[in-house]
């Protein structure tokens, strides 16, 4: 099993632009901020999910190992019994800044909305659209 994503996928992920003001991008991620931010992604995508930061609990529930190089991952449930509300695990050891959290949330929310896109260019265009919509929700009127 590969211990890294494909370089093209990594670059597409890195190219996602967070709508956060520059002075907030490098701030640390805490669980409360992450939950509030995740709610915004759920709102703009129309797809609810539960953010999870306890990776051992996530692995236990999903039955899938959580690999140490994963920044985030979603679990929909078994094909025969999908969860009403999927889980989204976020690895806070790798997602340490708010900008990184935005990228991870957009990337994984995209997988929930259009799972068939995989890691194609169109998938990351959709992830960027989600980021842009979150930015519109959080923009301060002039």
Number of strands: 3
- Span of the ends, CA to CA: 50 Å
Mean pLDDT: 92
| Structural class by SSE content | mainly alpha
Radius of gyration: 14 Å
Please, how many helices?
A: 6
Strand order of the largest sheet: 1-3-2
Bulk shape? globular
Low-confidence stretches: none
SS strand fraction: 5-15%
Strand count, sense and barrel status of the largest sheet are: 3 strands, mixed
- What's the SSE pattern? HHHEHEEHH
Percent of residues in helical segments?
40-55%
Keyword list:
142 residues, mainly alpha, 3 strands
Give a verbal description of the structure.
- With 142 residues, the protein is mostly helical.
- The chain is built from six helices and three strands; from the N terminus they run αααβαββαα.
- The longest helix is centred in the C-terminal third of the chain and has 18 residues, at 121-138.
- The N and C termini lie far apart (50 Å).
- The model has no long low-confidence stretch (mean pLDDT 92).
């Amino acid at each position: 099993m590969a211990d890294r994503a494909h370089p093209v996928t990594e670059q597409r992920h890195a190219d996602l632009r967070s709508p956060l003001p520059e002075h907030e991008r490098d701030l640390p991620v805490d669980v409360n901020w992450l939950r509030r931010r995740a709610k915004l992604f759920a709102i703009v995508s129309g797809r609810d999910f539960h953010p999870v930061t306890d990776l051992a609990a996530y692995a236990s529930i999903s039955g899938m190992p959580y690999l140490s190089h994963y920044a985030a991952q979603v679990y929909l449930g078994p094909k025969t019994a999908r969860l009403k509300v999927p889980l989204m695990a976020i690895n806070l050891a790798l997602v340490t800044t708010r900008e990184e959290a935005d990228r991870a949330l957009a990337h994984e929310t995209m997988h929930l909305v259009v799972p068939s896109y995989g890691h194609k260019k169109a998938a990351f265009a959709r992830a960027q659209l989600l980021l842009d919509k979150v930015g519109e929700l959080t923009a301060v009127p002039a």
